[in-house]
Description:
Elements: H1 2-17, E1 37-38, E2 41-42, H2 49-54, H3 68-77, H4 82-85, H5 87-94, H6 96-128, H7 135-145, H8 157-187, H9 199-216, H10 225-246, H11 269-280, H12 283-291, H13 305-328, H14 336-339, H15 345-378, H16 386-407, H17 411-440, H18 445-477
Antiparallel strand pairs: 1-2
Protein name: Amino acid transporter transmembrane domain-containing protein
Membrane topology: Multi-pass membrane protein
Domain Amino acid transporter transmembrane: 66-472
Amino acid sequence: METQDGGQKSGSIQAKQNLASRSQEKRPSDDSNPIILKHKKYMASNVSVKTLDLYDPYDYRDDGHLSNFQAWAHLVKCSFGTGVLTMPKGFQHSGLILGFVLGGLIGGICLYCMLILIKSCVHMAARQRVPYMPFNESMKYTFEHGYPLCKPMSKIIIGFTDTLLVGYHFGICACYVNYMAQTTLRVFGKEGCIEGYNWPTVLAVVAWLPLICAINCVRNLKLLAPVSYVGNVLTLASMGIILYYIFKPEPDHGFMSDSWHYVGEIKTVPLYIGIILFAVEAFGVIIAVERDMKTPRKFVGLFGVFDKAMFIVLGWYIFLGASGYLRYGAEVQSTISLTIPPDHWSSTTMYVMLALSLLCSYPLHCYVCIDIIWNNRILPKLNQRKTLLEFIFRIALVVVSCIVAVCFPQLDLLVSLIGAVCLSFLGIMMPGVMEYNVAWSKSGMQWNLTMVKDIGIAAFGFCAFFIGTYGCLFSFFDSNPEDHGQSNSTKPEC
Length: 494
């Protein structure tokens, strides 16, 4: 009885806040379907098809602060990072022709799966009659009310999803530390120490440690907004210098190198799968941008904000990967920036600017780990010294990311492993499984074809996970200097 009264009261308050022109018949009454939002947890209930069709979550969302152009700019901006810097190395692993084919295929599937994920989350919000439903809660609900064999896994799916999100963003932090250390070695003339296990690499990581700890201990994200803007400017300037060096003709061989190939070796092609997954799948950014838009219904759909932005992003990735590989060929190192020789002040400036831009971006990715582990798991169990323990936790995350960066000196392998393990699940398999569970309760040929399609998507995601992870681990344990940079005969001594 209390639930019904509370639901009626909530419905009355929301009705007063809606515009007078909005039809009250559009919103189903709480008497016919008593689903409420309580303590930010979504309570399951049986929802009739008529009730579901009448409720549009977009009509009841809080007004966001991002315009369509701002949302588009955020999605495009996220393409400038370590992912795109490793694309020329990815083309070296796959070869030029195979790089175009696999890049377009895997990238297109990833973007389509993100559309599936967003539409499924909106569908789950409509079923629950709430304006917005987070990704992990949507996954749990689809597992509870979808395919019967998925129901036992509904109890662990949120923890599994959070683990993948933490692994993904923590891996990005480790990649940033890795790149900053390699850049330091390059600036100080220690090219022979790059991508190896040696004391100069450890010292380079330790040199960055105080700065990373300091910026990661800033608890208020609003204070980091100016830092983020500075990082964006530094990144764009660095990309301009990189493009200048790529298209700068050389007297001996012009624009193109003589050491590129159409198709790469079989043992290195799987590394490209993880790299393209890592590069294209800006998972957290995409979900956050859709949630904060003023007009979120324009995010998806034909020629929506997402389509316009991500087609540009995918084209930019393939363009930079192919042009960088054509320019340097077999000389490409783990990132295109480290491939450029430090023979001029402009290249040295580019190294420093990129390292500083990644330092500015580090706390934004680490915040996801802090929010999931500390705010949701640890903090509710503490009674005292919460602030002190939080700072210790933040510093511990930085130290562990530095250790991972030292243990994985080859940046392209680290990027590939993160993409193959985390993003094959988050970006491909889970959207397919989510839509399959949504379609399970439906009837008709359209939904049957949807389930067949989703089975294929999930199978593709599992293959990407298995092949990419196996190829990365095999290359890591079987790596030699010729696979990552110069050969022993030409590589400078450390």
